[in-house]
Amino acid sequence: MTSPSYGLEGRAAVVTGATRGIGRAVAQALASAGALVCVTARDADEVRRTALELGGIGLAGSVADPGHHRRLTELALGEFGRLDVLVNNAATNQPYGPLMDAAPEAWREAFTVNVEAPLRLVQCAWRSWMSEHGGTVINVCTEGAGHVGPNVGAYGTSKAALLHLTGQLAGELGPRVRVNSVSPGLVRTEMARFMWEPGELDIAAGLPLGRIGEPEDVARAVLWLASDAAEWVTGADLVVDGGTRVRAAHIPAS
């Protein structure tokens, strides 16, 4: 049996939150597979630098800005003439802390960035290209969407909503568009530094695969879902967590 081609040569992809961490690794993986990549993030200098390094294009802005979705879609279509892959990676983990302390505006911001923005971007992609030509959407969720934990109530709740949104869109947009999600465990990113840096060795020892994740681990999963190799996969959530969900059965080596 031969390995399937990713089939992404000449296809166009938009990646949000694409200048660092998981988003940067995803954009790099797509570009390396032959895709034309449009990146976006809030820092204009980082967007320009990332776009230049990947041989793609970029647009600085916040996904919380309602007009940004349309401008981003128009840029990709104007430069590439198509929009085949959309990766909704941009996210916020604020407000961090007990939900009883969560201010209304911070709560709304979490859902605007983590849930509404992906929906609005899918709407733009669908109306401008994908409804007629097809495509694929990958939402970056989290392994933590399936359970509760201290201080991450807003993040986990909003990502659980994104997980549900993924399935809903998969059902509504098929067969033209496939919609899936990737749910990382603890990954070595700046956003999650406060979680992994203080006790990385202990955390890694408790995982069946013996280490925390790297952005590239998640990027490879996104790349597969975006590719023709996953052409019969939609509405799925691909967990990339080093065995976090099964660690209760793991017996660490002495």
TrEMBL record:
Keywords associated with the record: Oxidoreductase
Highest taxon of the lineage: Bacteria
Molecular function (Gene Ontology), one example: oxidoreductase activity
UniProt-listed InterPro entries: NAD(P)-bd_dom_sf (IPR036291), SDR_fam (IPR002347)
PANTHER family: DEHYDROGENASE/REDUCTASE (SDR FAMILY) MEMBER 4, DEHYDROGENASE_REDUCTASE 4
Family the UniProt entry places it in: Belongs to the short-chain dehydrogenases/reductases (SDR) family.
Name of the protein described by the UniProt record: 3-oxoacyl-ACP reductase
Species of provenance: Streptomyces swartbergensis
